[in-house]
Amino acid sequence: MWAPRLFRCQLVKPRAIVAAMTPYRDILAIPAQRRLLFAAIPADFADWFDYVAVVALIAYVWGEGPVALALLALAFALPYVVAGPLLAAWVDRADLKLVLLLSNLGRGVLTFALVIAPNVEILLLIVLLRGIVDSAFTPARQSAIQLTTPEPLLMAANGLHQGINQASKIVAPACGGLLLALVPAQGVFVINGVLSVVAFLILLGLKLPPRAHIEHDAEEPFFARVAGGIAEFGRNRVLLAVLIFASAANFTFFLYDTQIALLTSQLGYDATAFGLTITASGIGGMTGAYLAGLMRPNRPLLLMALAALVSGPVTVGTALAAAWGVAIPFPLFCLVMAVMGGTTVFMLVPYRSVIQSETPPDRIARVSAAGEAAMTTAMMAAPLLGSLIVTGFGVPAPFIVGGGLIILLGLGALAFAFRR
What we know:
There is one protein chain. By secondary structure, the chain is mostly helical. About 80% of the residues lie in helices and about 0% in strands. The chain is globular.
């Protein structure tokens, strides 16, 4: 029976609650996992801490317009689409600890370089280079998680890592923005560079077991090895199914994600309320990661489907309420945002667990990077379409379309899960 342990302890007995927490205790009992998790806190915060400062420097200090901000978005995203899969072919053969160390140190050095960027062109180049360096970190971390985690604990490990990542997306930009009120953008860059150095120092003590390399592609040209990450999805139906699901889900989420401020305004809430709804979404995301980590890993696609079948109706229902002028009490709207954020993150934890459990150790970095590239590409394509839908049909429209697509995606994944 695949039902999560958490659901079986709803008639709350203290012993049952302790049993539900066992996967997390087991993960934290692994020294390498503890160090990876402690390093993830400054490393993931470094990804988001100076975002507000970079935007403020471009838009308010240098007075640049939408073209520069659009180029900034590309500089943040493109490395994970282009450089990530290329670097992953090297990561699969390199010393993992060395990759983790160099990527954090390189990110720190390039963040310090932002302090002396004289104009927007140099700043964008540094952001791009920093993204290229950082694009090696994610596949290396996925490989390290696979290497140090027993398969029954993969969901718990990914739940913890995803929870830290989700917290970073919410807390780090807010902290950076608050700090920006006290110091110039260059001061924020210095502190962010220190975060990467802290992650580097934590990882110095990381002890990883040796990797069992399978050198079946030892003589292959470099680009053939790069293609091996994509080819792995074609050889494994489960891998392909979760990639299609995750990429399609990412597309539908970002179809309406950038329109949330407009929906909040249409429902009659002000800018302060919008900030609180984003916080609620972040709390939901952390909760979703925590709950997903408690699930048994034997039916991951079923878990993803069920999360989609919760997310889709909630999204469509909220959009219809806005379209029909139905007043939604603010606490209820915050709960809706928490559910939307939580189910989104809930789907990512099984996806990463499947990547680690179904991929041979000698190509985990390439497969992970190929998957990240596919999801990032889907993410980049969706906001423009979402804005066109808003222009043509009104603010609730992309939420209705996106929620409907998520429902169809969930039904398709449900059918696939039960057919296996």
